[in-house]
Structures are given as structure tokens and as C-alpha cells.
From TrEMBL:
It comes from Caecibacteroides pullorum. Pfam families: Phos_pyr_kin (PF08543). GO terms for molecular function: ATP binding; hydroxymethylpyrimidine kinase activity; phosphomethylpyrimidine kinase activity. NCBIfam families: HMP-P_kinase. This is hydroxymethylpyrimidine kinase. The keyword Nucleotide-binding applies. Its EC number is 2.7.1.49. InterPro entries: HMP/HMP-P_kinase_dom, PM/HMP-P_kinase-1, Ribokinase-like. Keywords: ATP-binding, Kinase, Nucleotide-binding, Transferase. Residues 14-258 form the Pyridoxamine kinase/Phosphomethylpyrimidine kinase domain. Pathway: Cofactor biosynthesis; thiamine diphosphate biosynthesis. One of its GO terms (biological process) is thiamine biosynthetic process. GO terms for cellular component: cytosol. It comes from the Bacteria.
Length: 260
């Protein structure tokens, strides 16, 4: 008998299969893990954008999470779109019963097309209830700027921001530099010390679900026993592979999904 590496994704549903829980399940499965999934919200969207978001009640999100944590004992948890204070507070209470399970959190605030995926009063709950419980938080530049209340323009700004956020919330932070200009993209991890991860920019608009893919890949590699910097390195290499393959794909008429 064998138990595969079980990863629980807690995230929103994207019916077009590019982002959210669908991207997470594809990623975890492609990397050899077993994917369990607890749903926080139902979005209506396709490659052209998000048209609506309905959140599930917080206790129902926590009940799904508890059902998986109490029985399947996942090696790691990935949290994506949480959306609402009620969901965050219930989730945090449930996760507090499993302090040894590493949590990777993508603080999803906006869709790639610019639609809000988090209610304005939920960010405070995210900071106080969930960040301190995480092994890693993975904001993009806009999310990190919002969290710090200042704009980030350079690699130096990112290094300082990752350190500040990590020291403030007591968990590692990976700042994703994809929105900075240039031929190369650099992400900055602060986990007691600073690490850089640099890759060539791939020219494609098929980037829907990159944040979801990266965070669920990191959770899978962590669950498989890698150190955090090694899990980030492996996850970035996987994401590059899926973006390169997706650049040859035509799915829908807007921003297409990654190719897992
Ligand atoms: N989660 C859901 C349900 C989404 O719909 C989206 C974006 O549309 C995201 C997360 C974030 O997507 P990305 O990985 O492109 O940042």
C-alpha cells in the first residue's frame, strides 16, 4: 500500500479551467501529488474576464477543510481566493487545529482581468488571522504594494518589502516580480535570508492562472519534502514550462490558460 503526497487546495472555482481550484488540481496532479479541494467561491468567468463572484458561507468552507484535514492528513495546504472575512475567520479557526501542516497562501485580491476577488474589509482578517499561520505568502507586486501601503518599482524595493513583510507577519514572503519591466523576471523570497529566482520573460498573453499554478506547485514540492527555497525553484521551473507550452495554445478569445 502506498500513500501519495496529498495536497489540499482551498480556493475559488473558475469554470474556464484556467485559474482557481481547477488550475490547482491540474498542477498538483501533474507534479505527482493527490489533489483534494475545498471551494470558497464560485466565479463566473472565461478567458475574457470575470462577470460574477458568489462566496460560500464561512462555516461551509471550514467544514470542507476539516473533512479533508481530519481524514486525508494532507502534507501541505494551498490557499488561494478567500474573498471574505467570514471565510477567513472560519478557515483560520479550522487550520489552528493542525499547526504542523504547512500552508502556502496566494493573497488573491484581483483577477488577472482586474475584477475584485476580495471584499475590501477582508484584507485586515487576512493579515491578522491567516498570514501568521502560513509558511509562505506569495503576493504579486500590486498585492505587496497594497499590503505595505507604498509603491514598489525596483528589485531593491522588492527585497526590502519581502524582508519587512516577513518580519512583520512571522512567515516567509515570496514577492513575484512579473509586473516589473524587463527581459528577465525576478522573484524575491525572504525566509530568514533573501533568495532570488530569475527567469527569461516569455512573450505570451496566455498567463491566466500563473499565481494559482505557482503557489500550488510550491505547496506540492514542500509536501514532497523539499526545503522552501528548493520548492520555489522547482515550482518556478514548472511554471515556466507550462507558460512556454501555453504560448502555442489557442483557447478562448482572451487571456488563455497555462498548459499543464
Ligand atoms: N482564483 C480564482 C478563482 C480566480 O478566478 C483567479 C483569477 O481570475 C485567481 C485565483 C487568480 O488568478 P492568477 O493565478 O491569474 O493570479
Amino acid at each position: 500500500m502506498q500513500t501519495p503526497t496529498i495536497i489540499l487546495s482551498i480556493a475559488g472555482s473558475d469554470p474556464s479551467g484556467g485559474a482557481g481550484i481547477q488550475a490547482d488540481i491540474k498542477t498538483i496532479s501533474a507534479l505527482g501529488g493527490y489533489a483534494a479541494a475545498a471551494i470558497t467561491a464560485i466565479t463566473v468567468q472565461n478567458t475574457r474576464g470575470v462577470t460574477s463572484v458568489d462566496y460560500l458561507p464561512g462555516p461551509l468552507v471550514a467544514a470542507q477543510t476539516e473533512a479533508v484535514l481530519g481524514d486525508l492528513h494532507p502534507a501541505a495546504v494551498k490557499i488561494g481566493m478567500t474573498g471574505r472575512a467570514d471565510i477567513i475567520v472560519n478557515l483560520a479557526a479550522c487550520l489552528s487545529k493542525y499547526p504542523d501542516t504547512p500552508v502556502v497562501l496566494d493573497p488573491v485580491m484581483l483577477s488577472s482581468s482586474g475584477h475584485p476577488l476580495m471584499e475590501p474589509n477582508a484584507t485586515e482578517a487576512l493579515r491578522t488571522e491567516l498570514f501568521p499561520r502560513c509558511r509562505l505568502v506569495t503576493p504579486n507586486l500590486n498585492e505587496a504594494s497594497f499590503l505595505l501601503g507604498k509603491n514598489l518599482h525596483t528589485l531593491q524595493d522588492m527585497e526590502q518589502a519581502a524582508t519587512e513583510l516577513s518580519q512583520h507577519y512571522g512567515c516567509a514572503f515570496l514577492l513575484k516580480g512579473g509586473h516589473l519591466e524587463g527581459d528577465r523576471m525576478t522573484d524575491v523570497l525572504f525566509d530568514e535570508q533573501t533568495h532570488h529566482f530569475s527567469s527569461a520573460r516569455i512573450n505570451t498573453s496566455n498567463l491566466h492562472g500563473t499565481g494559482c499554478t505557482l503557489s500550488s506547485a510550491i505547496a506540492t514540492f514542500l509536501g514532497q519534502g523539499n526545503s522552501l527555497p528548493e520548492a520555489v525553484r522547482l515550482a518556478k521551473a514548472y511554471m515556466d514550462k507550462t507558460i512556454k507550452a501555453a504560448s502555442q495554445w489557442e483557447i478562448g478569445s482572451g487571456y488563455g490558460p497555462l498548459c499543464h
